[in-house]
Amino acid sequence: KETISKPSEIIVIDPTPQPFILDGSGNLKINFSLTYGANVTLRIYDIRGRLCVSLKDEEYFSSGVNNIDWDGKDENGRKVKMGIYILYMEVKSDQGISSLKKTIVVGKRK
């Protein structure tokens, strides 16, 4: 599920792979496109709304396609548990503030 406010600021966000398998073979790639250069905050929360990790905190990104990687670890460097997580992105530019929420599924190989 994806929720966007003021979608003209954030054109697309595409976290891949989905589901994200924590087997050490790679990172979750969070690709997004911005209409304008902007300061980006990107956080991942568990399904109960607790912060797992803050990947970016008002870091500037230029307009166009950008990407951020997540290794599946929390703020303390521990791998997160299997489950559903919420990716929250906030974009601040001269045009205003936009936000987006996207569901991420994290799994593990047997």
Description:
The protein has 110 residues and is mainly beta. It has strands spanning 2-5, 10-16, 20-21, 28-34, 38-46, 51-61, 64-70, 83-93, 96-107. Strands 1, 3, 5, 6, 8 and 9 form a six-stranded mixed beta sheet that branches. The protein has a three-stranded antiparallel beta sheet with strand order 2-4-7, with no helix packed on it. The two termini are 26 Å apart.
Figure out the total of helices: 0
Largest sheet: 6 strands, mixed
Give the overall form: elongated
Q: Structural class, from secondary structure content?
A: mainly beta
**Beta-strand proportion:** over 45%
Helix content class: under 10%
Average pLDDT for all residues? 88
Radius of gyration: 14 Å
Number of strands: 9
Distance between the termini: 26 Å
Order of helices and strands: EEEEEEEEE
- Could you name the ranges where pLDDT drops below 50 across 5 or more consecutive residues? none
Index terms:
110 residues, mainly beta, six-stranded mixed beta sheet, single chain, three-stranded antiparallel beta sheet, elongated, 0% helix, 9 strands
Task: Summarize the helices and strands and which ones pair or pack.
Layout lengths: L1 E4 L4 E7 L3 E2 L6 E7 L3 E9 L4 E11 L2 E7 L12 E11 L2 E12 L3
Parallel strand pairs: 3-9
Antiparallel strand pairs: 1-9, 2-4, 4-7, 5-6, 5-8, 8-9
Task: Summarize the structure in short.
The protein has no helices and 9 strands.
